[in-house]
Each structure stands twice: as C-alpha cells, then as structure tokens.
Write a structure and sequence with these properties.
There is one protein chain. Among the domains are: 137 residues, Rossmann fold (3-Layer(aba) Sandwich), CATH 3.40.50; 70 residues, no CATH class. It is an alpha/beta fold. A four-stranded parallel sheet has the order 2-1-3-4. It has a three-stranded parallel sheet with strand order 5-8-9. A three-stranded parallel sheet has the order 10-11-12. Helix 10 packs across helix 11 and helix 15 crosses helix 17. It is globular and about 75 Å long. The termini are far apart. The longest helix has 20 residues. Iron/sulfur cluster binds next to loops.
C-alpha cells in the first residue's frame, strides 16, 4: 500500500506554507508505517499510488493535471482520489451548499474508511485519525525542499516548513465577515493542546530543529478568557517565540473588559516577528483607534495590520474601486499616526477591474516597510521612474518631485522620448480616471509616516 499526498497550492506555485492537514495525515500514516510521499509535480507518473489525498487551501489554485474532479466524482467510491480543503468550496455563495460542503470537509479525514481501518495512536478516538490530536509529520516536505535547495533556492525561503511547530489552539470566530470561510461560525472553541503539535526534535548539536511556533487560529483573542488566558500562559511556558499567522483581532482590546490585560500579556510574550492584527474595514476605525491607544501604551515592538481590499470588485464598478482605494489610505493614515505598518491583503476579485494594477503598486509600497516608512505612495511610484532613468538611461535626475512638478515636465515634453515606468503610469491613470477626486487622492497618496506619527495619541491619558 502506497499513499500519495498532494499539496495542490504548492503544485500551482501559490504557497510558502506547509499544508497542515497533509502534515497530520502524514503523521498518522507514519504512526502506522504506511508508505507515503509528497507528489512533487503534476506531471508525475502516479500509477504507483493506491490512494491519493489532495488538499487545497486557496480557491484560485488549479487542480493538478492528473486529477479531473468531475470524472472522479462520477466514479464515486471507486475513485482512488480523496480531495478536500477550503480551496474546494470557499467561493460557494449558496449558504446551504457551503455549510454542507464545509461540515463534510471538516470531518472528511476523520470519517475516511481507509484511515479508520487503523487504530488511533494519539488519543481522541479509537480508530482512524483525530485531526486535533494528531502530531504532524514535519518532515513531509523535506525531500522536496532538499531538491529545491540543490537547484539553487535559498534554505531561508523554506523556513516556514523547517523551523516551526504548527497548529491551531482554538478554532472558529463570531465576526461573520462575508469573505471568510468562518462566515457562518458563531463561537471559538479550544482545538489542540500545544503538546499535541509541539516538536521536540533536536539536531545533531542538540538544538531544537523547530525552535518557533506558529498558530493558525482564526480569532484567538475572541475566545473566552477561560480559554485564552491559560493558553497564553502555556505558550509563554514553552519559552519558544510564537506567532499568530492569521493576525490577531485588535478590536477585542477595545471591546473586552480584559483589553488592558490582553495587551499587557501579549506584550510580555516572546512574540516572533511583528505583532500582526487586522484592520479589514474602515468602519472599524473607532474601535481600532481605541484599541491602539491601549496597545501602544504596553507595546514598543513593531505592529502591523493586514488591510483587506479588492473584495467584490467587478470590471466596471468604478465607484467601488474608488471607495476601496480611498479606504485603504484612510486606514493607512490611522496606522501611520500610531506608528504602525500596513500590509495589503488583496481578495482575488481585485483582478476583475482594468485598473487592478493600482492594488499591485500599493502592495509593493505598503508591504515593504523600508518603502512605507521612508516615502509616500506617490514618492514610491515617482522614485521607480527616476531609478530607471538613472540606472538604465544614465541620466542625472531629481529623485523626488511632486505630482504638480511631474505634470510640468510631462507638458514640457520631457517624457516624449522616455518610457514611463509601470508604477508611475498606474498612479497617473488612476488619477486621470478619477480626476474629480484628484485633490483628495493626492492628499492620500502623499501620506508619510514620519509626518503623521504622533506619540501623544497613546502616551497622553485621556
Ligand atoms: S474576524 Fe477573521 S476569522 Fe473572523 S470571520 Fe472575520 S476574517 Fe474570518
């Protein structure tokens, strides 16, 4: 018996994280000495496998070439493919259809007839896999990674596969954001205990192979204090730096009577990397500001906010595009005042509009702190142009000019014999399309962190 495991997102080039469901499935197979391996290319000969499990997180990921879903659906029980993961149903707009698919999908491996032939060696149930209890097999991707490194990729590119223990301490949410796979969930419940996924494996020098932890919890802080308080304590007791990868819900600091306690506890943690929260909706501004006043009093470390955008954009909806872009910058303006970073998270709908490249350029600026901290969005776009003129054309140019100065050059014919770089072209096309909003857009595109940051906002008691 040989089992093939497929990370469809990886095959389609769309991820830099291991697939946790596959790691756990591999852990179960490993517990039973059942032969398995990761299928590394969609052109592979898969005839050696008796069963193939395909997992897909992102809905934009294409199915592997060797898998034709509709044909396999016709074969029903005879199919040797098993497929699951949010990528197969996240876009289902029908509530009943979504709920049904999700509830089947969430329990799919636990109900798998093949896996249920084997006893559970980890707890949680007698036969088959318990996804919460199963220790992941963290080396699943190692042969693939070794080949990529041998082919020239840097090892650091694969750090998410190699340096972390990974799990969910809690699952669920109550916010019901319409774009989220948790949109019909109501509550947050405990899921795994840390020791169920914490790797203590050491290298030949006796150092932990996986010194960090990352957590996929949907909304950890929104769980009840009887859940988050002991879990945070346990995380601290591991003495390993940890990180909540999906971002934490900053609004809870403003909403909860325990907001100050959460801010204080989180600030005492060995947090790995930046603290990441989410500022998904402009309408949350009052709560986010209230929470930031608490957070910044306790925390000196870099704080970043995911900025969701592009959702429900269609090809001719200029009004929504303008509103969406403005609201990105309104949120950035708040973050800059509090000395925080933004990180653009685009919903794939952003592709639908012909001016979609504005999102790409905003992300290129905002998601790279070195640019975001030093220059405005306008300056970033203009600097791309002058950088090209200096490097490629060998010209001596003024690195930064205002939009008005650029227009003077443009009208004087300076650009007649020069191409205009894509970032500059993009921002100009956007300003032209929305010329009646140009004044406000230019104000937003010229926001700079160093002009706006104001410690009095959080240091002064109100
Ligand atoms: S707060 Fe986060 S996890 Fe909860 S529904 Fe919204 S996007 Fe999903």
């Amino acid at each position: 018996m040989k089992i093939g495991l497929v990370d469809a997102d990886l095959l389609d080039g769309g991820t830099r994280h291991p697939n946790l469901a596959l790691l756990k499935l591999a852990g179960f197979l490993n517990d039973h000495n059942i032969e398995f391996r990761l299928i590394e290319s969609e052109n592979e000969d898969i005839s050696e496998f008796h069963l193939i499990y395909i997992s897909k997180v992102f809905s934009f990921t294409k199915d592997p070439k060797f898998f034709n879903r509709s044909q396999e659906e016709k074969k029903g029980k005879e199919s040797r493919f098993r497929w699951g993961g949010t990528g197969f149903y996240a876009l289902n707009e029908n509530e009943m259809g979504f709920r049904q698919y999700r509830s089947v999908d969430m329990m799919q491996l636990e109900n798998d007839p093949f896996l249920n032939r084997y006893p559970n060696m980890r707890d949680g149930k007698e036969m088959g896999i318990s996804m919460a209890h199963q220790m992941p097999f963290y080396d699943l991707y190692v042969p693939y990674i070794e080949k990529r490194i041998a082919a020239g990729r840097k090892k650091s590119y694969y750090k998410d596969y190699l340096q972390y223990s990974i799990g969910f301490l809690t699952r669920g949410c109550f916010r019901k954001c319409p774009f989220c796979v948790n949109r019909f969930e109501n509550r947050i419940l405990p899921y795994s205990k840390i020791q169920w996924f914490l790797s203590d494996e050491k290298d030949e020098k006796g150092r932990l192979k996986r010194p960090y932890i990352y957590l996929w919890d949907d909304n950890f802080l929104a769980s009840s204090p009887s859940i988050w308080r002991p879990l945070l304590k346990e995380l601290m007791e591991t003495r390993r730096p940890f990180q909540f990868r999906q971002g934490l819900d900053e609004r809870i600091l403003a909403e909860s009577p325990y907001g100050e306690e959460i801010a204080e506890l989180l600030s005492q943690c060995k947090y790995h990397g930046d603290y990441i929260f989410a500022f998904d909706n402009w309408s949350d501004r009052p709560k986010i500001e209230k929470a930031l006043k608490i957070w910044k009093r306790y925390n000196k470390k870099e704080t970043k906010f995911y900025l969701f955008c592009g959702y429900k954009l269609n090809s001719n909806d200029d009004d929504l595009l303008l509103k969406d872009i403005k609201e990105i910058f309104y949120r950035i303006e708040v973050l800059m005042k509090y000395g925080c970073l933004g990180y653009i998270m685009r919903h794939e709908d952003y592709h639908n509009h012909e001016l979609q490249n504005i999102y790409v350029q905003i992300a290129r600026w905002c998601n790279q702190p070195a640019f975001y901290k030093k220059m405005s969005f306008w300056e970033f776009c203009y600097r791309n142009q002058t950088f090209w003129e200096e490097r490629t054309l060998g010209l001596k140019v003024t690195p930064i000019k205002s939009y008005e100065e650029f227009i003077v050059d443009f009208n004087n014919g300076y650009y007649t014999d020069k191409k205009i770089s894509l970032p500059l072209k993009t921002i100009i096309s956007f300003l032209e399309r929305f010329s009646s909003h140009k004044k406000e857009l230019l104000r937003l595109f010229n926001l700079r962190l160093r002009d706006l940051v104001n410690p009095n906002l959080w240091l002064k008691s109100e």
